[in-house]
Amino acid sequence: MFNHPSQRIAVLIDTQNLYYSARNLYNAKVNFKNIVEDAVAGRQLTRAIAYVVKTKTGEEKPFFEALGKAGIEAKEKDLQIFFGGAKKADWDVGLAVDAIIFSEKVDSIVLVSGDGDFLPLVQYLKMKGVYVEIAAFNETASAKIIEGADNFINLSANKARYLLGKERQEKIETTEEKPARRRGRQRIPLSAL
């Protein structure tokens, strides 16, 4: 992996791809803050952008606020609902256009997505001399995009760091349960706190 402190980097997050991967694989949510932190790896962060979908109900507002507190910009797109109930919220073109624009201003781009549709983008960015990294869950990442990138960050290799929810909760409970039993104390579940 090519890391240098003066390297300028942009982190572009395909939020839907990561959300559904974590939910389907681990029944958990994604810790985007830790992903960005590890993707940057001491380099100069130019932009960290999460491509998100907003609904009419606004239920996603706390999530958008959490992204902002983590230093991640949220680019919002309205959820489209078609006649018959079909829904669409695709950011692939928007993310790709931003990556092309940033390719003139950064040394490295981290695409946080395992979507194989981004392979032509990865190839283009590399042709322009940009170092391209993919961060995704190995089980749902396209083998072609992994092979095409200069570096792959396998989020599945450190689930405790990159996931929130059930998987992380079980790890915390398992870790806390052992000392509590040794001391003869009754363990209070974290969910009760």
Backbone CA Rg: 19 Å
Choose one word for the global shape.
Answer: globular
Number of strands: 10
Q: What is the CATH superfamily?
A: 5'-nuclease
Unreliable segments (pLDDT under 50, ≥5 consecutive)? 172-193
Mean pLDDT, all residues: 83
Proportion of beta-strand residues? 25-35%
Describe the secondary structure blueprint for this structure.
Layout: E1 8-14, H1 15-26, E2 28-30, H2 32-40, E3 44-54, H3 61-69, E4 73-78, E5 80-81, E6 87-88, H4 92-102, E7 108-112, H5 119-127, E8 131-136, H6 143-148, E9 151-154, H7 159-162, E10 163-165, H8 166-182
Parallel strand pairs: 1-3, 1-7, 3-4, 7-8, 8-9
Antiparallel strand pairs: 2-10, 5-6
Describe this structure in words.
- The strands form 3 sheets. The protein has a 6-stranded parallel β-sheet, with helices on both faces. The protein has a two-stranded antiparallel ribbon with strand order 2-10. It has a two-stranded antiparallel ribbon with strand order 5-6.
- The chain has 193 residues and is an alpha/beta fold.
- Residues 172-193 have low confidence and may be disordered.
- The chain contains 8 helices and 10 strands.
- It has a single domain, classed as 5'-nuclease (Rossmann fold), CATH 3.40.50.
